[in-house]
């Protein structure tokens, strides 16, 4: 028997795109201390001291601020971690995630 060669043509995917990014917002409230917000920004979002202070003041002045832009999984993970830390400390800190 003779071997047959078949031509195999591979599909080339041309519709690849970057995953959608999501903004993580931190919201102002009257109960969460400024020091705790700075600590969350440093521990969960890896902000420097100066950057954490300026973000905390931006939240305090304008009711909310974007603390980072991440892929969906990372954004939800950071929101969840920060929310758990706030609840354990007894604060009603609210963080949200929205397409950005």
From TrEMBL:
Belongs to the ClpS family. Binds to the N-terminal domain of the chaperone ClpA. Pfam families: ClpS. It comes from Hoylesella shahii DSM 15611 = JCM 12083. Coiled coil: none annotated. GO terms for molecular function: peptidase activity. Involved in the modulation of the specificity of the ClpAP-mediated ATP-dependent protein degradation. SUPFAM superfamilies: ClpS-like (SSF54736). This is ATP-dependent Clp protease adapter protein ClpS. PANTHER family: ATP-DEPENDENT CLP PROTEASE ADAPTER PROTEIN CLPS, ATP-DEPENDENT CLP PROTEASE ADAPTER PROTEIN CLPS1, CHLOROPLASTIC. Keywords: Hydrolase, Protease. One of its GO terms (biological process) is proteolysis. Residues 18-96 form the Adaptor protein ClpS core domain.
């Amino acid at each position: 028997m003779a071997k047959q060669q078949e031509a195999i043509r591979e599909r080339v995917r041309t519709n690849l795109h970057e995953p959608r990014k999501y903004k993580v917002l931190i919201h102002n409230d009257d109960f969460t201390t400024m020091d705790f917000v700075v600590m969350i920004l440093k521990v969960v979002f890896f902000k420097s001291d100066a950057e954490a202070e300026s973000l905390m003041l931006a939240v305090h002045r304008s009711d909310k601020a974007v603390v980072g832009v991440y892929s969906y999984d990372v954004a939800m993970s950071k929101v969840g971690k920060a929310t758990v830390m706030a609840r354990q400390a007894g604060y009603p800190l609210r963080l949200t995630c929205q397409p950005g």
